[in-house]
């Protein structure tokens, strides 16, 4: 069995997400009853769209990462816990004993919940099952039990589907991506924090009157408020802050201009790539709707995708660009902090994107929510760093020079993995049972009052009503 799983995992690693996803989409579309030609074109279009999205993301992450690292260097801060970035975290997770099993576990959990009518999300983004493996691998490090690690990974796969269903209507409304949900706890974990802080800010005089969404800015500033111009302006400010000491005036201006133009390009190109993605998803969504209606009436099925499809929105990018220097400042001033952020500063858009539907794109509120989330993350990161370091060493990861411990913003800063790992690490099988009860409480709590849950997560009231009708009867 291990040899089969190793071979399967090797195929996944070799093909990569951009090749594997079109194949999965093609097969799923055929199973759902789409004509072969239409299914083939849908898979190919989605694959092309994700290549485009990844190219634009590469531009953004490189531009933002270089600027952020320059700012960190300018501060001169030194810490003994080093941020190694999500690619390293993914490699560690997939290289662990849990990583070998996580793909079949994730698929089985998804299929079981779909057949039981307990989820509406078909999670096709197999590559990102590494998030589940990350939690499971740290549970193994905490307990020494592979069984506990596998159970933890399965529970994370289930919880991700619950969050995907809960937030689907809000994501679809705000981002304009019908038939899509986002089953990634790395992005969805901000939702409870955002709901709580949004409720609080609604009740603080003065704060509740601040409306800083990109549409309002554009109406007030005209062409200077357009997303590409905002990207340029924010990029210039970030560029000058990063490269003010990079050389003579010509060099500084050149680097700042390149940063500004690159981020302006991201503002324009990412939404275009998402539109291409949606073109490919339409045949799959229609086939899924027809397939389900023949067997379960009006029940809906959403396609679970990477949160990369969300971060091209101007609100997500604008708030993230402000949060990069905020994160660096926090690393300097937070009491007891031992973490130096480095590789993962550029993934902040993924962390805050799902707050946007809840605050209806209010960039000010997204910055506040993102700041609180990062503060929590620093202390979570310090708590999890010994386990992450131990797992990395077991997986053969090469430790950075001068690093005693390692972490990452994704997933080392996330409170949900921390709570799960701590609970199972302290209580063993009883901890597994407690986590299971919490997951079931979320699942059936949402099913008992979907309209209220969806509205809190950013759905319009009328959309929540439609979703209520679509819920299968108990």
Can you offer a commentary on this structure?
- This protein is mostly helical.
- The chain contains 20 helices and 6 strands.
- It has a 3-stranded parallel β-sheet with strand order 5-1-6. Strands 2-4-3 form a 3-stranded parallel β-sheet.
- The longest helix is centred in the middle third of the chain and has 48 residues, at 249-296.
- The relative contact order is 0.16.
- The model is unreliable at 462-474 (pLDDT under 50).
Structural class designation: mainly alpha
Order of helices and strands: HHHEHHEHHEHHHHHEHEHHHEHHHH
Question: What is the C-alpha radius of gyration, as a whole number of Å?
Answer: 22 Å
Number of helices: 20
Please give the number of β-strands. Answer: 6
Q: Biggest sheet, open or closed, and with what strands and sense?
A: 3 strands, parallel
- Provide the residue-averaged pLDDT: 84
- Give the strand content: under 5%
Order of strands, main sheet, comes to 5-1-6
Helix content: over 70%
* Shape by Cα distribution: globular
List the uncertain runs.
Answer: 462-474
């Amino acid at each position: 069995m291990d040899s089969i799983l190793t071979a399967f995992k090797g195929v996944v690693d070799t093909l990569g997400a951009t090749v594997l996803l079109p194949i999965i989409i093609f097969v799923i579309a055929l199973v759902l009853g789409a004509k072969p030609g239409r299914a083939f074109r849908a898979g190919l279009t989605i694959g092309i769209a994700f290549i485009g999205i990844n190219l634009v993301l590469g531009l953004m992450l490189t531009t933002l990462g270089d600027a952020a690292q320059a700012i960190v260097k300018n501060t001169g801060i030194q810490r003994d816990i080093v941020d190694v970035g999500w690619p390293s975290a993914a490699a560690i997770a997939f290289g662990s004993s849990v990583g070998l099993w996580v793909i079949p576990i994730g698929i089985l959990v998804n299929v079981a919940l779909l057949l039981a009518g307990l989820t509406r999300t078909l999670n096709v983004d197999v590559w990102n099952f590494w998030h589940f493996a990350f939690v499971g691998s740290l549970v193994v490090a905490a307990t020494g039990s592979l069984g506990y690690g596998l159970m933890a990974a399965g529970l994370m796969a289930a919880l991700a589907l619950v969050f995907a269903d809960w937030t689907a209507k809000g994501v679809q409304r705000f981002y304009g991506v019908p038939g899509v949900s986002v089953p990634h706890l790395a992005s969805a974990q901000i939702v409870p924090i955002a709901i709580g802080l949004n409720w609080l800010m609604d009740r603080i005089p003065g704060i509740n009157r601040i409306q800083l969404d990109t549409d309002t800015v554009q109406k007030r500033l005209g062409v200077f408020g357009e997303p590409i111009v905002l990207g340029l302006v924010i990029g210039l400010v970030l560029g000058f802050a990063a490269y003010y000491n990079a050389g003579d005036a010509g060099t500084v201006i050149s680097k700042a201009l390149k940063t500004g133009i690159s981020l302006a390009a991201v503002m324009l190109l990412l939404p275009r790539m998402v539109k291409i993605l949606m073109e490919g998803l339409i045949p799959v969504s229609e086939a899924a709707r027809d397939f389900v209606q023949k067997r379960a009436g009006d029940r809906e099925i959403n396609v679970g995708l990477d949160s990369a499809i969300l971060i091209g929105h101007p609100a997500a990018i604008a708030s993230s660009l402000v949060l990069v220097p905020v994160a660096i400042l926090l690393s300097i001033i937070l009491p007891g902090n031992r973490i130096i952020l480095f590789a993962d500063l550029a993934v902040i858009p993924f962390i805050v994107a799902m707050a946007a539907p809840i605050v209806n794109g209010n960039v000010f509120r997204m910055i506040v929510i993102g700041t609180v989330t990062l503060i929590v993350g620093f202390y979570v990161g310090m708590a999890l760093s010994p386990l992450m370091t131990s797992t990395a060493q077991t997986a053969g990861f090469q430790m950075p020079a001068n690093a005693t411990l390692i972490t990452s913003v994704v997933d080392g800063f996330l409170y949900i993995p921390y709570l799960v790992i701590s609970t199972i690490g302290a209580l063993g099988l009883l901890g597994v049972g407690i986590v299971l009860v919490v997951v079931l409480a979320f699942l059936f709590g949402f099913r008992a009052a979907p309209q209220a849950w969806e509205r809190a997560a950013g759905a319009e009231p009328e959309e929540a009503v439609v979703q209520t009708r679509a819920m299968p009867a108990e």
